[in-house]
């Protein structure tokens, strides 16, 4: 019984531990993750991985832009066109972001890396 409890406790500890994040620039995330997910969507017709990638994007925004990025993503998802969020966001923010924050590192959740391995 003691052995079972110690194994169970170890299992719970593993489940409760945070999945580490990957650090990279937003541009690298878009190139490595979002673009790959969009290619997969076009090839397979399955937008689920792209949707999961797009949902993370507002969390990568600067604090003052987070709300608007969220609105853009939510609108694209409600229209069932996740790829539309890219064009809208780029139109509004790309020039400023590129000029001022190009080298800013953002934390990408590790679960997105696992999703990327599926495609």
Strand pairing plus helix content: what structural class? mainly alpha
Give the mean pLDDT. Answer: 85
Terminal Cα span: 42 Å
Total of domains: 1
Apparent shape: globular
- Count all strands and give the number: 2
Number of helices: 6
Spatial extent as radius of gyration: 18 Å
Q: Hey, roughly how much beta strand do the residues contain?
A: 5-15%
Largest sheet: 2 strands, antiparallel
H-E order: HEHHHHEH
Low-confidence stretches: 8-17
Strand order of the largest sheet: 1-2
Q: What is the share of helical residues?
A: 55-70%
Strand and helix map with partners:
Blueprint: H1 2-16, E1 21-25, H2 26-44, H3 48-56, H4 66-78, H5 84-101, E2 105-109, H6 110-118
Helix pairs in contact: 2-3, 4-5
Structure description:
With 119 residues, the chain is mostly helical. The protein has one domain (20-118). It is built from 6 helices and 2 strands, in the order H-E-H-H-H-H-E-H. It has a two-stranded antiparallel ribbon with strand order 1-2. The radius of gyration is 18 Å and the shape is globular.
Can you describe this structure in just a few lines?
The protein has one domain. Helix content is 70%, strand content 8%.
